[in-house]
Write a structure and sequence with these properties.
The complex is a heterodimer of chains A (426) and B (90).
Chain A (H helix, E strand, L loop, with lengths): L1 E7 L3 H12 L4 E4 L14 E2 L4 E2 H14 L3 E4 L2 E8 L5 E7 L14 H5 L3 E3 L8 E3 L1 E2 L11 E2 L9 H5 L12 E12 L3 E3 L16 E3 H8 L19 E5 L18 H15 L4 E6 L9 H10 L3 E12 L5 E7 L6 E6 L1 E4 L3 E3 L35 E3 L9 H20 L4
Parallel strand pairs in A: 1-2, 1-12, 2-5, 12-22, 14-20, 15-16, 15-20, 16-17
Antiparallel strand pairs in A: 3-4, 6-7, 7-12, 8-9, 10-11, 13-21, 17-18, 18-19
Helix pairs in contact in A: 1-2, 1-8, 5-6, 6-7
Chain B lengths: L4 H14 L3 H20 L6 H8 L3 H13 L3 E7 L2 E6 L1
Antiparallel strand pairs in B: 1-2
Helix pairs in contact in B: 2-4, 3-4
Classes of the chains: A alpha/beta (426), B alpha+beta (90).
Chain lengths: 426, 90
């Protein structure tokens, strides 16, 4: 199959770039490794500084991509190899992972999920919630196809027995797809810095110490608990703390850079928590507040006016207290610097961003910076260009950035790719 | 709906090819036991700590299963009582 552009990653950057290219009349093949398009953004509660519903913004774009005649969307699919051709085009080997259902038959009725007896941790809810061994990834997933998790399946046959269209295929194998494209756009996004990178913070050990993306799910309308509750026992938290720079600006973790979004998402989550739990005491322990974007400083000042406590302090250690509570040992950086212990019901670690995918796995000439993000040799004048001719990048694949900057970069990348194709480079 | 002959054959081959680990079977058995205990203990509205105390299962595990059962329509949240919500078998 021939396309103008291969877009790798269907988060907000890949979706926006694919749509912009398709609107230019370009044929796009959009490859997403997860079972649904939407990326990180579809799992967020709201976006800053407008507090618009993230799902309400993302879902229409997902639907536009899925229905666009110039976009072929391949989900649950990974790029295995991309080989440059002498004429400037690329040949890509893509592998479609087995869902263990026949997609052309499935009607998305969820009967298989309802009858499956095996409950497992839900990765979309960052393990806070449950799903079945065969399940549709989340409510507004696109496409609405279930995925069977083979290493969790007991092969009881209940799903096939319940399926009204006989679409379960227990022996499905990965399927190879080969495409020829004129350009490649990398929009592979980010992942959080490791939860347990600082063992002294208790990440992954103390149930009431959670990640910022778990915090997003707690605040989401269809979140795992239906409301904001702490994971250890379902208590309505009365005192919530955010620990800033819990995974960034720390050379010992290999993440010396600022992740650029943690201050603002913590402030956003604090404001949303304040709305959900009006009597709760909410504290943000920070080194510096970096509110650099349009309207961000006003957003920060609003949070202070709402009664969010901002404490300039370093958190040295987090330990379990009684009844699931969590103690933070802090050293203030203003006034007294005597170590203190602060007691909270729930702690959210503001983890930073690291690249989701290492492009070097494809054995092409694309270089990364020392921090592992895709190198843009001509940034800031030409941020989409990489060290590989005909291969471009945008969004958090090239470095930490927020949604606003990601969408702007994606639009720019689509234009640059369009120019590349129009010049007849491919 | 009963399984077609083709699906039956595929299921049989999948069982032969992939098998089921003893750990998975043990976890599945334990999950069924926990959910049965939770549902039997939640005939009237009850909080997670009380359910945990009555069943002898840790409150963290009880809470995870309560939300799993809520998601799949086997339990409902009834009302808030103090710092906790009360849940009931549907």
């Amino acid at each position: 199959m021939k396309y103008d552009t291969l877009v790798i990653g269907a988060g907000i950057a890949g979706l926006q770039a694919a749509l912009d290219l398709a609107e230019q009349g370009r044929q796009v093949v959009l490859v997403e490794k997860n079972p649904s398009i939407g990326g990180r953004m579809i799992s967020l509660s709201k976006v800053y500084p407008t507090l618009d519903c993230a799902s309400c913004i993302t879902t229409p774009r997902m639907a536009s991509v899925a229905h666009h005649p110039n976009i072929t969307t391949l989900t649950y699919t990974e790029v295995k190899q991309v080989i440059a051709q002498p004429d400037g085009t690329y040949h890509a080997h893509i592998s479609k992972k087995p869902r263990f259902i026949e997609e052309d038959k499935c009607i998305g009725c969820k009967r298989c999920e309802e009858v499956c007896p095996v409950y497992i941790r839900d990765d979309f809810e960052h393990n806070l919630g449950a799903k079945k061994a065969i399940s549709i990834p989340f409510t507004n997933a696109i496409p609405q196809f279930p995925v069977l998790t083979p290493d969790q399946c007991t092969w009881c046959g209940a799903c096939a027995n319940a399926c009204p269209v006989d679409c379960i295929d227990y022996l499905q194998e990965p399927r190879d797809i080969f495409v020829e494209v004129g350009a490649v756009l990398v929009a592979t996004g980010f992942e959080l810095t490791p939860f347990n990178a600082k063992p002294q913070y208790g990440g992954g050990v103390l149930p009431n110490v959670i990640t910022s993306l778990q915090g997003e799910r707690l605040l989401a309308p269809h979140g795992p608990f239906g409301r904001v509750l702490r994971p250890s026992d379902g208590k309505v938290p009365d005192s919530i703390a955010f620990v800033q720079c819990a995974g960034s600006r720390d050379a010992s973790l290999g993440v010396p850079y600022c992740s650029r979004v943690c201050c603002m998402y913590a402030i956003k989550q604090a404001m949303l928590l304040s709305g959900s739990l009006p009597t709760a005491d909410i504290t943000i322990y920070y080194m510096d507040i970096r509110a650099f974007g349009k309207g961000y400083e006003a957003f920060y000042q609003n949070a202070k006016a709402m009664g969010i406590n901002f404490v300039k302090a370093k958190v040295g250690r987090i330990r379990a207290g009684e009844d699931g509570n969590v103690f933070l040992r802090i050293e203030r950086q203003e006034e007294s610097s005597q170590p203190e212990e602060m007691n909270h019901d729930l702690v959210i670690l503001s983890l930073g961003m690291k690249p989701q995918w290492n492009p070097k796995t494809l054995a092409w000439d694309m270089e990364t910076d020392l921090d592992g993000f895709v190198k843009s040799p001509d940034a800031p004048m030409d941020p989409a260009t990489t060290t590989c001719a005909g291969v471009y990048a945008c969004g958090t694949a090239t470095g930490p950035k927020d949604i606003v900057d990601t969408i702007i970069e994606a639009g720019n990348a689509a234009m640059v790719v369009g120019n590349h194709l129009a010049r007849g480079n491919a | 709906m009963s399984l077609s002959a083709e699906t039956k054959e595929k299921l049989k081959r999948a069982r032969e090819l992939r098998g089921v680990s003893p750990e998975l079977l043990a976890r599945q058995k334990e999950n069924i036991r926990i959910q049965k205990a939770i549902l039997e203990g939640a005939l009237e509205p009850i909080s997670v700590p009380d359910l945990a105390q009555n069943t002898g299962i840790s409150s963290e595990i009880v809470f995870w299963h309560v939300n799993a059962l809520r998601k799949y329509d086997k339990m409902v949240d009834v009302k808030k009582s103090g710092d906790y919500w009360l849940y009931k078998k549907k």
